[in-house]
Amino acid sequence: MKLSKWYNCMLDAAIGGCLLVIVCLVLLQVGARFFFGGAFTWSEEGNLFLWGWMILLAAIRAEHMRVDFIAKYFPAALRKAVIILIASISLFLLGLLFWGGKEMVELTQFDYYIALNWLSVKWLFIALMITAVLWAIKIILDTVCALRCECKSAEGGITNG
């Protein structure tokens, strides 16, 4: 599925971009300590902020976070229903993650980082909301792909798994 591959590439690019900026910040911090005898105070908070975003985005791509292996233990007649049930439960849990992120954004909207006094803490919790939406899209794409493979498998074509 071309859309799913494109989506995965965009997620990988965002994750890689976060990692690249983290590496640059760490090198800047180490260089400042080595050459100038002190570090920038803002680089530590920026680093932690980017780690939060990177981890949440990377969780979307984590294969071990999926429970789709359960579906293959069911008879072919029930497999589609189980795939849809697993996706529905996952989407519900992501809805809770989104709602919790929204509550935290409202709670921290006037809190700012100490060294990055222009950056609100709410942006870290906005990452929860964005991750929930992006993960939901990923689940929907994977579910559609799994259902298509299941249809091909039933017709004697490609097997799922």
What do these coordinates show?
By secondary structure, the chain is mainly α. It has one domain (2-154). The protein has four helices and no strands. The protein has helices at 2-36, 41-61, 76-108, 122-154. Helix 2 runs parallel beside helix 4 and helix 3 packs antiparallel against helix 4. The longest helix is centred in the first third of the chain and has 35 residues, at 2-36. It is elongated. The model is unreliable at 154-161 (pLDDT under 50).
Radius of gyration: 21 Å
Give me the count of strands: 0
Helix residue percentage: over 70%
The secondary-structure element order is HHHH
Terminal CA distance: 16 Å
Overall pLDDT score: 87
Main sheet summary: none
Outline type? elongated
Uncertain regions spanning at least 5 consecutive residues? 154-161
How would you concisely characterize the structure shown here?
With 161 residues, this protein is mainly α. Helix content is 76%, strand content 0%. The protein has one domain (2-154).
